[in-house]
Hints:
Substrate-binding domain-containing protein; 4-stranded parallel sheet; Peripla_BP_I; 39% helix; 2 domains; single chain; 18% strand; signal
Amino acid sequence: MSGKHFAIPALVLVLAACGTTHENSGQGATTSAAACKGEGDKYTIGVSQANVGEPYRKQMDDDIRKAAAGVPQFTVNFADAQQDNAKQVADVENFLTQRIDLLIISPNEATPLTAVVKKAYDKGIPVLVLDRKVDGDAYTQWIGADNVDIGRQAGQYLADKILPQGGKIAEIRGLAGSTPAKERQDGFAKGIEGRGIDIVTTVDGDWLREKGQQQADAIFKAHPDIQAVYAQNDPMAEGAYLAAKAAGLDQKVKFLGIDGLPIPSGGIKAVEAGRLAATFVYPTGGREAVESAKSILIGCAKPPKTRMLPTQLVTQANAAEVYAKANS
């Protein structure tokens, strides 16, 4: 998706006269005059990240930072929750104390973060939720890709290309309380339905490479006959590959991941090198979040409730091309 330039309505100067108080009776700030003061003002954005231990989340922050650098009106402050729900709640509360103009959050888990996100939204602060979701609809916009569909595509690819005759596999999920973990699991189950694929074990890898490797090591000891591993992100898939290599199974077992980061240590290069059979590009949404923030705060626009991002299957046949295009 290409960047967009948002027109500034002539009413901006009139709206600016309405003041800067954030309270607006719990309606959020999608149409709030208080949220939009036009291109002549300055805005502080708080970014609450679930953790930066995952390469995907670090890349999300980097994409936000890079995009925001092109908007001189924006100052962006980042907080790392370190996979701790209580810390993330405190991070958001701290941003509210700082009287930020807009909140960008990628929740560690949905339910524990719902109340504080609603608190920000009810104060009239626009809230952009990236990738992982919260419960309910007390936010301005959710930005992400269709995790159920990605999981379904992963299941279909495994059934069609890796184990067309059926077989035994293991599944490594992400963090149990995060919405992508459930959605990618549900979609995958649909993708392999009726195809003779037996998921002999499902474990949680918490989205982390080290945890994925530890879990896979135990899996291969208990089930040395499995033929493939579906990991819900590339770092866990890479961890599983390392465990298989240590067990002498790396030439026998195939590995499937999700994320497809276009960086040297990312999933696209892992596919190109043959460690992973395939991955699916899951955009970070960082650039799109800044676009939406600009449209809300400077353009006085009301964004759609959902901004769905495209995904793409990456195999050895197109990995080099996808990587080059992403970095062009």
